Amino acid sequence: MSDTQVNNGVNVEHLLGAREALESAPEAAQFKWRSSCEWVNGTHSKSTITSFYGLGDEQDRGKSFSIEADHPEAFAAEDNAPTPAEIALTGLASCLMGGVASVAQHRGIQLNSVKATVEGDMDLAGILGIDDEVRNGFGTIRVSFDVDADASEDDIKALVAQSQKRSAVFDCITNPTNVEVSVKKA
Amino acid sequence: MSRQLARRSIDHVLLERGEVANSWRTERWDSLTLLTPNWLSRLPDYSYEGDNPDGYMDMPEVLRFLDTYAERFSAPVETNTTVTAVTPNGSGYLISTDQGDWHGKSVVIASGHCNIPAVPKIAQDFPDDIEMTSPMYYRNPGQLAEGGVLVVGASATGVQLASEIQASGRQVILAVGEHVRVPRIYRGRDIKWWMDVAGILGMPYDEVDDIRRARRVPSLQLAGFPDKSMLDLNALTDKGVEIAGRVAGVNGNKLMFSGSLVNVCALADLKMKRLLNTIDEWATENGMDGEVEASHRFEDTRVSEHRRLELNLADGQIKTVIWATGYHADLSWLKAPAFDARGRLVHDGGIMEPSGLYVLGMPYLRTRKSTLMDGADLDSGIVADHLQNYLAKKLSVN
Question: The complex's ipTM?
Answer without folding.
Answer: 0.86
